[in-house]
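Researcher: Next entry: Secernin-2 (Culex pipiens pipiens).
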Amino acid sequence: MSGICGEAFVVLAPLTATAQTVIYGRNGLAGQGSDVSEVHFYPASEASGPVKCDSAEVDAAATFSVILSKPAGVWGAESGSNEKGVCIGLTFSEGHPVDGKLNATDLVRLGLERASSAAEAVDVLTSLSAGAGPDGESKDSPKAAFVICDGSEVWLLNIVGSLWAAQKVTSSSLALKPGLSVGAQIDRSSDDLGEKLKSGGLWDGSGELNFGGVFGLDATRSWPGSEPGAEGSYGLAQIFESLRAAGADQKALSSHVSVLSGGGGLSCHWFTATPDPLESVFKPFVFTPGAKISPLTKAPEGESQTLLHKLHGNRKWEAVGDLLRSLEGTCVDEVNRFISEHSGEPNQELDELMKDCVEAEVKFYR
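Model: Predicted structure:
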C-alpha cells in the first residue's frame, strides 16, 4: 500500500491528566487508498503456518490480540493497539511497494501482533523490514514513518529502503504531519547508516546527520487547538479537541485515540471508524478475554463500505450532532470512572463496550 498518511499527536507525563500515562491520537488523511476505514478486532493466536500479508509472506509467530483501524480491503493497518498496551501509527508512506517485500501497513499489523512494548516493536518492525527496499538507496526508495507508543515511552521509526533510524521521544508532547519524523537525534539505526547515505550520494557527510533532512521530508507541525501546557491538564477531551481542530484544516478520515497506562491500569482505545472527526463520535474499546466489536465497522464480503460508513455518509449532523456529542461525553465520563475504580484486570462488563456504542450511534442515522 502506497501513499497512506496521517497526522499524529502524542502527550506524555507530566502533562497528562493521569500519571504514568501516554496519550496518542491520529487522524488518517485522504491519499491514494480507500477513504473508507474499517475497525477490526483479532484475538490472540498461536503460530500456525506462514502469514500471507498484502505484499509478502512471512513466517508464523504467536500473536497478541489487536484492534486495528485499516483502509477497507487491506490486510494490514494504518493505526492500532494491542492487548499489551502498545500502539503503532503510520504517519507517512511513499513509493511503490517492492514485490515480495512487506509494505508499511503490513508492518503496523505485524508489529502490534508480535511486540509487548514500544521498544520491542522497533525491533520487530526493523527486523521484518530488513531488505524491504531494492538494493541500493535513493530518494525514490519506499519510505515509511511510524509512531510507536506504550504507557512508558514513545519512539519514532523511519524506514527508507533498507535503511532505518529511530528516535526515543524525550519531549512532553509531539505533533507530526506526514513526512520523515526522525531528525538529528538518532538513538538507534541500521548498520553504518551515515556511510551508506554517503555512498548512495544522499548525504555529503558534513555537519550533523539529520535523517529526515537528507530526504527533505520534515514532519514537524504546530499543535492544533489548545497546546498541552499545565501539568496534569491533558486528557481525553483535549485529544478529541486536538484531532477535531486538525481535521478542520484538511480532509481527515477516521481517527484513533489510545490512552495507554504505564502503571498497571487499564488502557482504553477510541475509534471513530468514520471520516471527519468534526462530525464523528469516538467509541471506546478495552481488551478483555471476551472482547467483541460490532460487525458494522467491517465491510461485508464483496462490498467496499462498512454499514456504519454508509449510514454516517447520509447523516444530518445539524439534527443529530449535539445528541451524539452528548452521548460521547457521557461515555467518556463513565469509562473514566470505571477505569479509576478498577485495577488493570480486564472485566467482562467491558466485553461489548465498543459494540454497544456503535449500535447506539447507528440508531441516530436511521
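Model: Note for the record: The first helix runs from residue 104 to 114.
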